[in-house]
Structure formats: structure tokens, C-alpha cells
Amino acid sequence: MIxxxxxxxSSIRFGVGENHKNLTSWTINTKPFKTADELFLxxxxxxxxxGIDKNQIKGIVIGSVVPHQTxxxxxxxxxxxxxxxxxxxxxxxxNVVQHSDQMGTxxxxxxxxxxxxxxxxxxxxDFGTALTILGIDASGEVMGVVIAPGVITSLKAxxxxxxxxxxxxxxxxxxxxxxxxxxxxxxxxxxxxxGMVEGLIARIKKEFNKDFxxxxxxxxxxxxxxxxxxxxxxxxxxxxxxxxxLYEQNV
Length: 251
Ligand SMILES: Nc1ncnc2c1ncn2[C@@H]1O[C@H](COP(=O)(O)OP(=O)(O)O)[C@@H](O)[C@H]1O
Ligand SMILES: CC(C)(COP(=O)(O)O)[C@@H](O)C(=O)NCCC(=O)O
Ligand SMILES: [K+]
Prior knowledge:
By secondary structure, this protein is α/β, with parallel strands linked by helices. It is built from seven helices and ten strands. It binds adenosine-5'-diphosphate, the ligand CC(C)(COP(=O)(O)O)[C@@H](O)C(=O)NCCC(=O)O and potassium ion (K). Adenosine-5'-diphosphate (ADP) is lined by residues 8-11, 30, 128-129, 150, 152, 218-220.
């Protein structure tokens, strides 16, 4: 079995399984910053909770967009398993062609998973700390990326910079025109973001004169996927699958 770790700006997601198709997964918060000793204890508890025998893990792969946390996670896992993790990034070999020397590892993993798991042209929408959309054509060439503030990131800025706006639950309100503060904000955050996503998908389809299969992922994908017919599939584990595939292709 392999252990796959995606270090995002909000959460560190773990997956354990034989390969990219069958993964048992859990997450911990990225913040506040954790030491290797704290992580060591957390990891041990998680294995117990998920009935995972640490001796079954034969390989570890880590992808990260939080550089200062990468080595610490690797060290804590090395202490538990005695295994040196494979740390992958946009320069790790794959069947995907991409030309950016800045692309975050999660975006690259999203491209790899999309290319290996779905035919045709794809858009991968990642509802994370940032909202990203990556376009990749049927041959495996990355066409480009959209980066926007993530839903929670934007909500936090709104609540933090105003005196009278409360934190809200991200659920669709009854009407697009709210009758109380909470419903007004829910419309802005939920229907507003759906509008942005649908608008970007339409703009990309028109500009490139191509059709795309659209996959969503990230912590909030499951909230937005049911609200639009423009997203074909939500897969919370999409990024982890990409990291797994990078491991399988480079081990
Ligand atoms: N199951 C969930 N339900 C609601 N919010 C979630 C869930 N999982 C993650 N979140 C929140 O969604 C945001 C994005 O999460 P995530 O995709 O894990 O971000 P990242 O990949 O940037 O670490 C974060 O603010 C996180 O707290
Ligand atoms: C765009 C991101 C912030 C998304 O991170 P996330 O929301 O998954 O935590 C991350 O992929 C990143 O830091 N990228 C580097 C810049 C780039 O991809 O061009
Ligand atoms: K993400």
C-alpha cells in the first residue's frame, strides 16, 4: 500500500491504498503550523482510527503548495515508517506537458489525474483556499490556469472587513434576493461563485472553441457540484489520485 499526502494551504489530505483507484482518505488542518513531533502523534492516532497497519505502507508520496511544511511532514512520516518520501512537483516526469515554471503541485497533480483518468479535453475546478481552473487538452498539454480567491477565503475577507456581517453556513438560500443578512450573503457566496464558475467555463469553451469534460475537486466541490449542470463530476480525491499516479510513474 502507498501513503499519499497533499499539503494545501487549508488542509493536509492523506490517502492510503493499493493504487490511485482505491484510497481511504482523511484530512487535518494545515494551520496552525505543526512541528514534526505534533504531526508524529497525529499520524499515529489517524492510523488507529482508520484501522491502518503502518507496516503495510511500502511507499510515501508528498505533494505540497506550502514549502515550509513539506520537510516537516516528510520527517514525521519517516520517523513512523522509516521510509524516505518521494516529494513530487511540476518537474516530476509524467505524460502531461506543461510550460509554467511556477505551477503549484496541486494544479500539476490535477492535470496528471485528469489526463490519465478521462478522455477528451478537461477542465479541473479546485474549490480550495484558492479557486483554480486548469484546462488540459486531449493530448495532455496544459492549456492554462485560472486562479481566483477561494470561497472561504473571500468570505473571511468580507466578514473580517465589515462590522455587521456575520460568518455564515455555505448553503444555497431559497431566493437569489435575500430577505435577511444571512440569506443575502449566502446568495452572494453560493450563487455568486456558481455564476463565476459557469461564466469562466463558458468563456473558456468559447475562446478555445472546444468542449470540455469538467471535474471539480477540493474541500467545497461537493457543495457547488449539485448546483450546476456545467460540472460533470465531483471527486474529492482527484488531486490525491494525481499524486499517486506521479508516484506510480516514477517509482
Ligand atoms: N467537507 C468540508 N465542508 C466544508 N468546508 C470544507 C470541507 N473541507 C474543507 N473545507 C473548507 O474549504 C476550504 C478549502 O479546503 P481545501 O480544498 O482542503 O483547501 P486547500 O486544498 O487549499 O488546503 C477551506 O477553507 C476548508 O476549511
Ligand atoms: C494556486 C494555489 C495557491 C492553490 O493552492 P490551494 O488553494 O490548493 O491551497 C497553489 O497551487 C499555488 O500556490 N500555486 C503557485 C502559483 C501557480 O500555480 O502558478
Ligand atoms: K486543493
